[in-house]
Structures are given as structure tokens and as C-alpha cells.
Design a protein that fits this description.
Two copies of one chain form a homodimer. Chain A is mainly alpha-helical and 201 residues long. Chain A folds into two domains: 40 residues, Homeodomain-like (Arc Repressor Mutant, subunit A), CATH 1.10.10; 136 residues, Orthogonal Bundle (Tetracycline Repressor, domain 2), CATH 1.10.357. Chain A has nine helices and no strands. The N and C termini of chain A lie far apart (41 Å). Chain A binds a DNA duplex (18 and 18 nucleotides) through α3.
DNA sequence: GTCTATATTAGGATAGAC
DNA sequence: GTCTATCCTAATATAGAC
């Protein structure tokens, strides 16, 4: 209904998954139980196949994680690039970025959730962390510039402000559920209002 | 210097840990690597003792987790109780709660971090989750009441507002470090300003 | 309070048939 | 694309001595 882009001829019988379907279920399980707490057996059980079948789709458990993390990072980086490209002043870029980030978090919720929980326990996780730190630094630079432009109040440290804003945004993955009662666009508006105008009446 | 309440006669030689010291190191490791990714061997290695030595202090790995989670939850519950007891109107209670929660998060950072990452993979985790949900519901009720009092803007859903506020607060555990450049009290002020007045100049 | 075994199970991963 | 069988390692936990 929503995403069936690949030209895959919609499988029928119980068994018979493609890479995308495996990825989908894996990411969901990783989020429900945590990556480390999810065994390949768990995943196989959830899909109703054996462990061996999974190794036909992915070389390793961490290869699944790698694909998911790349997807999340690409989304966030694109949102940042778009925001920077579409606006010349930092204040407008920041607003666009907040809206874009909320968009990515709601659209790719499960993969971004995975990204935000990465601790650096493997090469895959460490390289994702590096890439995420680069993203964070670019964002911090924009917040600093927006403060210099007078958009962000001067009585708060720009680095702290950056973390508070994205702390609020990132926390969405903990409760937002696609298809739930909260509309993604309205949510973006709420976050913009909450961060910049405040929740006080 | 800070917490040496127990009457333990300050050990000397390398080996020789008490429960508190083991707990301290365990919680730090759990946060660095994730609970599931941290083996009892890792912990033993970090302490410079064998695995068996650890089982002298705690019955199981999850027993360590249980103590840490209880401490975090107790702190948050106390902050909530204090806020409710000290103020009669919801608006003041909410402000006191935000300040108190930031205080608990900064003072018991490592244990609260652990709590916020719990997924419910065991009985210990599930009972912590239940207790946390109770806390969340009490908080949501206060936010609703504060909105009814006219303190919180009416154009945002109270449940969403609650999650945004505590999303920002809880995100502190991701970057705040005791003894670092950010003062806990100033941070509480910043969070109050950011959530209620907004970050806009 | 710690140590040297050791039991036991589960985990990630591979070989090769269907 | 999936299966059975299997390898190998690492994980939690225990027994009993020092």
C-alpha cells in the first residue's frame, strides 16, 4: 500500500523474502528489543524461516544494521543540504532544518531510532557515529550563525541550544508512530513553536 | 568525596571491591556499551577481577541493573512528589518538576541514562517500564492541568507538549557530563526558558 | 573477597543439498 | 530462497578451594 517501489513480483507463499522485507522486519525487531539483544535466531523466528535463510540475504547481522544506519544518515544529511541550499540566512536555514529533520524522523522513524541508539560497539557503529558527529557539527554551526543574526536569544550558549533543540526533535522517535493520531506536518509545526516560541501561553 | 555514606572502611589494595563500587563501574560500562553488549567478562576485566568475584556481590547481571534502575526511578518519583507537595497550582508544580527532573538527571546521570534505554527485555526491565509509565502519566496530568490553568498554550495537545518537554529534558543524558563545562543549575534555567519561553530572541 | 576450573546454553556463521 | 546439520566461540552461572 505505502512502499512497494521495487519491481519485485509480490511473493505469495509463506516463505520467500527479499532483502527489503528482511530489512524491514529486522529494523523493527532491533528497535523493540535493542540490536544486541536481538539474535539472528529471533529474527529468523519472527520471519518464520531458519537462520541460514537470512545469511542468504545479508552477509552478517551487522550488515543489516549498516544498511539501516546509512539510510537514516542519508535522510538527515539530505534534509540539512536542502535547508542550506534553499535559504541564504542561517535563521531560515535553521527553521527549514528543524522542519526537515522532523520530516525525516517521522518518515524513516525506525531507521533513525536505530541510529540514535548506536553506541560504537563495532566498526559499523563507529563509522555511523563519525558520520553523525559531522552532521551535528554542521547543525551547531547553523545555530551559532542564527544566534549571531539575532534570531536565537543571546542568554543561552549556542552549543546548549543546539542540543536542546535536537534533543526535543530526536525524542520523537521514542513515541511517534506513523499512522498514529499525530500528523507529521502538525508535529513539525508544534516542534517549531515549542523550540522557538515556547510552550507558554 | 561526594557519596561515601556506607560505613565501609575504605579499602586499600588493588583487589577488594564492595557492592557500591561494583555497581558504579557496571553502570558506567552499561552506558558506554549498552547493557546487552556488556558481558560479565567485560565488567570483570574492567575491575581487574574474575567473573566469579562479581557473583559474590550480585546474584546476576540483571540484579545489578535492577538496583540501578530502582535508584533512577526513586529519584524521579521524589522530584515529582516534592513538586506536587510544594505547590498548589499545576503551573508552579510543572515548573518545579522540570527543575527537579533536570536536577535528578544531572545528579544521577548514569543511572537515569540506563533507565531511559530500557526496552523491556526481561522481568526487571518490564517492571521498571511499568513504574516509569506511572510516572509519565502523573506528569501528563500535571501538564494538562497547567494547560487548563492557561499557563500552557492552547494550540498544542497536552500529551504532545508533555512528550516534547520531557524529550528535551531526557535528552540531557546523551551529552551532559557531571564536572563538565555546563553548570546543572544554569542548565535547569536554560531548559525552563527553552521549553516555556522559547529559544527565539 | 577472589581464584581456578567447569557446566551449560546460546550466539554468529558456514557447507552443501533441495 | 530455504533447509538440515554442524562448527566454534562467547556468554551466564556454579562449585569449591584459598
Amino acid at each position: 500500500m505505502t512502499a512497494e517501489d521495487t519491481a519485485a513480483p509480490a511473493r505469495r507463499g509463506r516463505p520467500g523474502y527479499d532483502r527489503q522485507q528482511v530489512l524491514e522486519v529486522a529494523v523493527r525487531l532491533f528497535n523493540e528489543q535493542g540490536y544486541d539483544a536481538t539474535s539472528v535466531s529471533d529474527l529468523a523466528g519472527e520471519l518464520g524461516v531458519t537462520k541460514s535463510a537470512l545469511y542468504h540475504h545479508f552477509d552478517s547481522k551487522s550488515a543489516i544494521l549498516e544498511v539501516a544506519l546509512d539510510d537514516a544518515l542519508s535522510g538527515l544529511e539530505s534534509a540539512l543540504d536542502d535547508a542550506v541550499r534553499s535559504h541564504s540566512d542561517a535563521s531560515a536555514q535553521l527553521r527549514a532544518l528543524v522542519r526537515g529533520a522532523v520530516g525525516v524522523l517521522t518518515a524513516r522513524q525506525s531507521r533513525v531510532t536505530l541510529l540514535l541508539r548506536v553506541r560504537g560497539n563495532s566498526d559499523v557503529e563507529q563509522s555511523a557515529l563519525r558520520r553523525r558527529r559531522e552532521f551535528d557539527q554542521r547543525v551547531a554551526a547553523i545555530v551559532r550563525a542564527a544566534q549571531a543574526e539575532g534570531m536565537i536569544r543571546a542568554d543561552i550558549d549556542a552549543a546548549v541550544a543546539t542540543r536542546l533543540i535536537f534533543g526535543m526533535i530526536n525524542s520523537l522517535v521514542e513515541w511517534y508512530r506513523p499512522g498514529g493520531p499525530v500528523d507529521p506536518d502538525e508535529l513539525a509545526d508544534d516542534v517549531l513553536r515549542a523550540t522557538f516560541d515556547g510552550l507558554q501561553a
